[in-house]
Amino acid sequence: MDALLGYLRELRSRAPFRSCDSRPSCSCARGYRVMLQKEWDLGDRRAGCQRITPLQCEQNTNNTEKDGFFEMPNVKLPDNPNTSVKVGSREGCELVCMSNCSCNAYSYNGSGCFVWHGGLLNLQEQYDQSDASTLYLRLAASELQSSERDKKRVASWVIIGSIVLAILFTCVPTILIVIKKRESRRMIEKAKAMQSRLVSFTYSELQQATRKFSTKLGGGGFGSVFKGTLPGSNYIAVKKLEGLYQGEKQFRAEVSTLGAIQHVNLIRLIGFCSQGTKKLLVYEFMPSGSLADQLFLSNSNVLDWKTRYQIATGTARGLAYLHEQCRDSIIHCDIKPENILLDDALVPKVADFGLAKLVGRKFSKVLTTIRGSRGYIAPEWIWGMPITTKVDVYSYGMMLFEIISGKRNLMHTGESSFEFFPLVATNKLVIGDVKSLIDQRLEGKVNLEEFEIVCKLACWCIQDDESSRPTMSQIVQALEGNLDVGIPPAPRSLGALNVS
């Protein structure tokens, strides 16, 4: 290998006007081109390079353009003999070379002025040794102009780039501020529009409103709910639907039903987002959480009887509106404490129409899939019977039992035993001992007449035969004191239940 490198160095040292680096890699110096291209391509580069443009002094023309010198810093000076001239400056050295047409280059340093005539042998650029010098290569004026044009072009691009960057640094913040103001103005307009109609949001707007969905309020089978804020400090709840097929189905059901109805006891859908696979619903925010939070969380305040009765009545009104006052009857299919939200005055709002279906007033449509949550679903779901609004009545009845007791219907009473409160309540109701069902945390502070009405209604609502269950409007009348409620029979399914 050393021998090969030595041979290559020897070859390149014989070729005039070649410029090489520290490796055996060479090209022609500026203003020169390959003399014998075919041999050069085959690796024989001894012929070297020749000028592209003859010097002015070599031509018999009246061209007034003078030859000049191209500066080559950090080079190993040519190996071929040079002439040393005694002059006191670089300009003087340049004048000496310019006065002789055969002079092709000069170098001036602390040792003096050196000029080269004929070919330049073994010229090395990017030379990093201590004896590196600056060589001034003589070229025709046109070659120097090309070099100057390249330098000017580079300088121009640098200047243009600097100007563009300066403009960007100056304008981008302003543009961002303008965009932010426009987005804020658009969000304010949408916040105002929410008062009267359903609003279409972009996904980025809801990302901004929820701070990239950072505060999660809850979740369910179809997605999660996040807290958000619109301009003017209007809080919202954003439901981010998950699952393309089911989410789309739920999205269409909720937008088509909730968006068209208004009732004090129904959660209000104020907007939506449908952007590709991203489906989101925007609701009014309920600061007091859900009925489940208020009833079952250990750190919550105990709801007094008056509030519980108002929640039961308001929920019944909301469901009655869905069942009987909408253009098409709406079956909720998933009534449970988690889906009854409470505002700051603890007014109930029926929420989460994720399982809702629109059916005709004859209620003849049979749904093919079981909906609802365990513990609240009506037996007809399991038995494959036609689904009517009475499935919501059944779920409402199960929820009434939890409003009565302040506890989940199924509770541990020992290491391996459970108590099913609807069974206990039905048995107590039959023997006329409803007082023993009162939540002990209420300390007996209840309206006994109202309490007995709620106990009877709960039992009527969970009858096995749906035709024996009251309608939601009848329940409202009973809770308002406008309809008498008789003693219900014990549901057969409860009578056959054996809980140990």
UniProtKB/TrEMBL annotation:
TM region positions: 154-179
InterPro entries membership: Kinase-like_dom_sf, Pan_app, Prot_kinase_dom, Protein_kinase_ATP_BS, Ser/Thr_kinase_AS
CDD domains for the chain: PAN_AP_plant, STKc_IRAK
Residue numbers binding ATP: 240
Membrane topology, record value: Single-pass type I membrane protein
Places the protein is found: Cell membrane
Pfam families associated with the record: PAN_2 (PF08276), Pkinase (PF00069)
GO molecular function, one term: carbohydrate binding
Catalytic activity as recorded in UniProt: L-threonyl-[protein] + ATP = O-phospho-L-threonyl-[protein] + ADP + H(+); L-seryl-[protein] + ATP = O-phospho-L-seryl-[protein] + ADP + H(+)
Swiss-Prot/TrEMBL keywords: ATP-binding, Cell membrane, Disulfide bond, Glycoprotein, Kinase, Lectin, Membrane, Nucleotide-binding, Phosphoprotein, Receptor, Serine/threonine-protein kinase, Signal, Transferase, Transmembrane, Transmembrane helix
Enzyme's top EC category: transferase
Entry-linked SMART domains: PAN_AP, S_TKc
EC number, UniProt record: 2.7.11.1
Boundaries of every Protein kinase domain copy: 211-483
PROSITE patterns in UniProt: PAN, PROTEIN_KINASE_ATP, PROTEIN_KINASE_DOM, PROTEIN_KINASE_ST
Residue span(s) of domain Apple: 57-140
A GO term from the CC aspect: plasma membrane
Family: Belongs to the protein kinase superfamily.
Name of the featured protein: non-specific serine/threonine protein kinase
